[in-house]
Specification:
A seven-stranded parallel sheet has the order 3-2-1-4-5-6-7, sandwiched between helices. It has one domain: NAD(P)-binding Rossmann-like Domain (Rossmann fold). 44% of the residues lie in helices and 15% in strands. The chain contains eight helices and seven strands. Strand 5, helix 5 and strand 6 form a beta-alpha-beta unit. It is an alpha/beta fold.
């Protein structure tokens, strides 16, 4: 059996309606996992793609601006799919403003979704993984801003830097329990969220000039790394934040 085979596994992916989250969910389904997705928008296209791969699919409506839905999300996955073996923390938001003008509301909104809920969902899923007795894989979507400062995104940079730290501490505590905790830091990826940047000829050129690979990434570039981290091939990978950025950070 291939070390990348996920047959018999159940993966919960947050924020999988489009873009990176969708590509990860579809990639995990293609590797054999049944899929549950949780978020605010009905992921009809993701559902069709996962089912086309022959996998079970569950959509859960959840607003991760608070931790209120966490326990119910885990319970619904167990009710419909029986167990949870893989968690992908992808859901996230961003707010932009000069640091001198940044509001408390925008700070709290981003930290709640991108860091607080990620921690408590990971906690809830890890408890279930330990109860199942077979370990599991937890993968969070970090950012280049887990390594760099950025501009005009104070709360996003704080959250993604914090996420790198949370990834490491959870790995320290859970590695010996059979739970792998890692993160992926995407570079500039072709999604709806980056369309404006790609349409701006000057900014697009600046970005491409910095990327050694000389192209924007595709969501599928992230999906392959997620499949690796979700699989037996990554059984000895703990606490890593893996950049998938076309070489951006190496420049």
């Amino acid at each position: 059996m291939s070390p990348f085979d996920l047959t018999g596994k159940v993966a919960l992916v947050t924020g999988a309606n489009t873009g990176i989250g969708q590509a990860i969910a579809v990639g995990l389904a293609g590797a054999g996992a049944d899929i549950a997705v949780a978020g605010r928008t009905l992921p009809s296209e993701t559902a069709a793609l996962a089912r086309h791969a022959g996998r079970k699919f569950l959509a859960i409506n959840a607003d991760f601006s608070t931790i209120a839905p966490v326990e119910a999300v885990v319970a619904q996955v167990l009710q419909h799919l029986g167990h949870i073996d893989i968690l992908v923390n992808n859901a996230g938001i961003i707010r932009r403003s000069e640091a001198l003008e940044f509001s408390e509301a925008d700070w709290d909104a981003v930290l709640n979704v991108n860091l607080k809920t990620v921690f408590f969902l990971s906690q809830a899923v890890a408890r279930q993984m330990l109860a199942q007795g077979e370990g599991g894989k937890i993968i969070s979507i970090a950012s280049l801003l887990s390594f760099q400062g950025g501009i005009r995104v104070a709360s996003y940079t704080a959250a993604k830097s914090g996420l790198a730290g949370v990834t490491r501490i959870l790995a320290n505590e859970w590695a010996a329990k059979g739970i792998n905790v890692n993160a992926i830091a995407p570079g500039y990826i072709e999604t709806k969220n980056t369309e404006a940047l790609r349409q701006d000829e000057g900014r697009n050129r600046q970005i491409l000039d910095r990327i050694p690979a000389s192209r924007w990434g595709k969501p599928e570039d992230i999906a392959g790394t997620a499949v690796f981290l979700a699989s037996r091939a990554a059984d000895y990978v703990h606490g890593a934040i893996i950049p998938v950025d076309g070489g951006w950070l190496a420049r």
